[in-house]
Amino acid sequence: MNNEAQTPTESQRIVDIVIAGLAKRRRAEMRFRFYGLISIIVGLLFLVLLFSSIISQGYTAFVYTNVALDITYDAEKIDPDGSRKAEVLASGDYDSLWKASLFKLFPEVTDRQKKRTLSSFMGSSAGQRLRDRVLAKPALIGTTERIWLPVDDSIDMLAKGRLGNEDELSEKLRDSQTWLHAMQAKGLIHKALNTEFFTNGDSREPDAAGIWGAVTGSAFTLMVTMALSLPIGIAAAIYLEEFAPRNRWTDLIEVNINNLAAVPSIVFGLLGLAVFINLFGFPRSSPLVGGLVLTLMTLPVIIIAGRSALKSVPPSVREAALGVGASPVQMVFDHVLPLAMPGMLTGAIIGLARALGESAPLLMIGMVAFIVDVPTSLSSPSTVLPVQIYLWADSPERAFTERTSAAILVLLAFLIVMNGLAVYLRKHYERRW
Which residues are 151's β-sheet partners? Predict the structure, then answer.
């Protein structure tokens, strides 16, 4: 009777213990969720801060300040013998044309030092633009026209409010600011799309520096990487997953592939320097060598992603294909590979996106060189967009800070597009088994 009387009490105590334990576990789970949510929010805040900083510093580089000048194409300065020959016109003194027009706007500037300061108001490419215009249309010689010409990079930064308040300006920039305000009052200052940023190669002068040379070099390098890494990586994944015998040699290969995927990228640059340049004598600082180095770096990623995609195909697909008389090769290429291809392409695109953003291995093979000309072939000296960003970030001129952030925005746009394409392919062609 005593045991029977105590049983409900003991049962209740056990229930209370269980309930208390459940409450404790629920509180622990709530804390874990709270910590996870806080981590995500902090990460997003840092991401927003990073993007805000880059965008706020770089968006102004996509526009540039121009001034309208009434240019008189004086034949004595650009075609003294009247021959209208291209070689004579190309060697004309075009800087004197815009200087004469600029001095007419401010006739009160007579001091030699002030005139020198006023001459520095215009950008280094102003004379180049006038020369190109005359070469394209020689009939302009002897006429006068109003044309928009770029100002110097320091004046452009001043017009955009990037040089601080008036108290922080030097005497030279205070004079330039006075002339800038006078031109603005006359409607001679205009901000337009900075096309030279997208069409020019690199330059020592910020107002003439552009990303087209680096973008072209990145395109050539990525073409070599894609042409080599995709077929080799996909073929290696198919062989290792579907045909290779399971023995210690294949195990050793798999271990090495997994290890290579974690090797720092600069090691591949050292390998490229030692093998492709020093041993085989390939041209230094060329997209060919850069593509070969990036191929070595992306191959492990593509192979691992390809094998994972092949593993995701259910064994029943293979068994059904073999059951109706397909050979192993037909089974793989006609049934398994089409189902695994979206996942394989996703991994390949992610690997190529990583290659597009790499700079460390390319620094080792000389793609850090100052390249003015836009590359025209796989063997031309060139640089790539990440290295161009690195070079500009190391430049002392303040205008290059703006262009560095703008180039980062362009690179991020390419990476977002490539990763977005990978997500689209995975979602659009994904099959759930």
Answer: 122
| Contacts for 107 with CB less than 8 Å, ≥ 6 apart | none
In this structure, the answer to whether residues 98 and 156 fall within a common structural domain is yes
**Residues 392 and 403 sit within 8 Å (Cβ to Cβ):** yes
CA–CA separation, 56 and 409 (whole Å):
11
Stretch (H or E) spanning 177: helix 171-185
Q: Which residue in 221, 219, 216 sits closest to 374, CA to CA?
A: 216
Least confident of 10-24, 45-59, 312-326: 10-24
Report percent pLDDT > 90 for the chain. Answer: 40
Amino acid letter for position 323: G
The answer to whether 242 touches 336, Cβ cutoff 8 Å, is: yes
310 three-class SS: helix
Q: For 135-141, what is the mean pLDDT?
A: 90
Residues 120, 47, single domain; the answer is: no
Contact assessment for residue 71 and residue 130, using Cβ atoms and an 8 Å cutoff: yes
Instruction: Evaluate if residue 1 carries a pLDDT over 70.
Output: no
Q: What strand order describes the sheet that includes 63-72?
A: 144-150, 63-72, 189-193
Percent helix, strand and coil across the chain, each rounded to 5? 70, 5, 25
Question: Can you say whether the dihedral through the CA atoms of 237, 242, 245, 248 is positive or negative?
Answer: positive
d(CA 60, CA 43): 27
Residue 49: φ, ψ to 5°: -60, -40
Please report which helix (H) or strand (E) contains residue 64, including its range.
strand 63-72
Predicted confidence at residue 69, as pLDDT, reads 93
The residues with which 66 forms a beta bridge, in sequence order, are 150, 190
Same domain, 151 and 286: no
Query: Could you give the number of structural domains in the chain?
Result: 3
